[in-house]
Structure formats: C-alpha cells, structure tokens
Amino acid sequence: MTTDWHIDPGLIEQYENGTLVPSRVMAVEAHMLSCAACRALIPAEDAWLDDSWSAVYDELHAPRVGPVARLLTRAGLPGHRLRLLTATPALRWSWVLATSAVLTLAVAAAWFGREGSQAIGQAFLALAPILPVIAVSGAYGPPADPMHEITGTTPAAGPGLVLWRAVSVIGVAVVMAGVAAVLLPGPGWYAAAWLLPALLLSTGTLALATSLTLPVAAVVLGALWLTGVLVVARTAEGLFVSSVFGPTAQLAYLLAAAVFAAVLITRRRRFDLGESR
Ligand SMILES: [Zn+2]
C-alpha cells in the first residue's frame, strides 16, 4: 500500500462524528492500520474512547425484543413482568412448534382423510380442552423449568407469577387450538364447543394446584376428562357430541369452572409449587 495517499480532513471529520457509511468506515480503518500519520489525526482521548466502547458494548448486550414482547409492552405490561413471562418454559418455541405441528396434522387429516373426518373432528373436540392443561403443567416449577432455581428466588416468584404464566400459556394454547378449530371441516359450532371445557379444565388444574403440584394436578384433571369422554363415547355412541358438548353440558362446564375459580381465588396463597419449605 502506498503512503502517498492520506485520508482527507472531510472524511476524518465524518468518521469522528459517526456519519460515515460503513463501507467507507472500513476503508478508513484499513488505511489507519498501516498509517501512523492518519491515526494521529484521530483524537484518541480517554473520554472519546470510552464513549465509543460503551456504544459498542450497549449495542452487543442489548436484550433482543421479539414481536410478541413488543406488543405486550405496548399493551402496558411492565418490563419486569414481561421478562418473567417470556421465560415461561411452556412458551418456548419448541413447545409452540410441536403444538402447531400436531394441530396442523389434525386439520390436514380431517380434510384429506374424508371418510374419518367426522371422527377426527370429534376427537379434536375431546382433546383440544387438554391442550391448555398440558401448557399450564409446564408453566412453573422445578420439573418443567430448568431456570426455576433462579426464577424461584426472585421477589416476583410464587402464586402471582404462577397465575400470570398460567393465563399467558392458556391464552396462547387457546388461540392456537382456536385457529385449528376454525380450519377444521364440520359443523361451525365445533370451532367453539371445546372452549368451555378448556376453561373448566384450566381453572380446575389451577385450583387443584393449591393442593397438588402443577404437573400432578394437570395429569389428574386431564385423565379425568379423557376417561369421562371415553365412557360417554362407549355408552352413547350416536349421541356423543350432543351429550358431551350440548347446551346442558356446556352450562355445567361453565358452572363448574366458576366453582373452581372461586376455590382458586380463596386458596391462591397455598399453591404447592414443589419447593422445599
Ligand atoms: Zn494516511
């Protein structure tokens, strides 16, 4: 490289101000590496260097904010809550992807299977309410959350956080199952028929979690629901949908969910979080 050419003062000024385009910054810096005269033109005072370093540091260490987090912030959720919510194990991409895959398969099977599409629609109705329960079981606590040792020591840990996380995972699960339900062939009301059972099972799991750990509560209620559904399917074959998802049943689910919600509210301080106390 020839040393006859040097960076002109205008360029140096832009470089100092940080207004130079990246490609020219690279050219300027490449020249400076081999030219002490041009290097000397830059005021390498401590303050200037410190500023530059802290700008680089901030850029590298700034937490990445995803679209969902940005939306929640705009909706008024405080930052510290957001951090604890987005660390919810059940909201990891792996969980969301696995659930989407299962739902997509169910919808595809119902559309392309034809013959069995009615059976698939009914199976979907029976299984969709369990989705939020599975999500809740992984929302908090040692077995599901490898970060729990750290989360558990934060001042925000405990019943409040369990509820926040439960509501967020139930919300995500319900939206995902809802999209699948709308895409399924079959009577239009199928798309909403599983919502009250889902509400019942979710509040039930949380109410039960005031005596049992979350995963155990989820397994107990999930198993009870499945057993009930299977028994009805066996005994009342043709009337399966109307007896499990008909108006009377829906009203019963709503009432039971209200009872569970009342239990949950009165006992919320007693969440068994599986911690040694
Ligand atoms: Zn030079």
TrEMBL record:
This is Putative transmembrane protein PGPGW. Keywords: Membrane, Transmembrane, Transmembrane helix. The chain crosses the membrane at residues 90-113, 119-141, 162-183, 189-209, 216-236, 248-267.
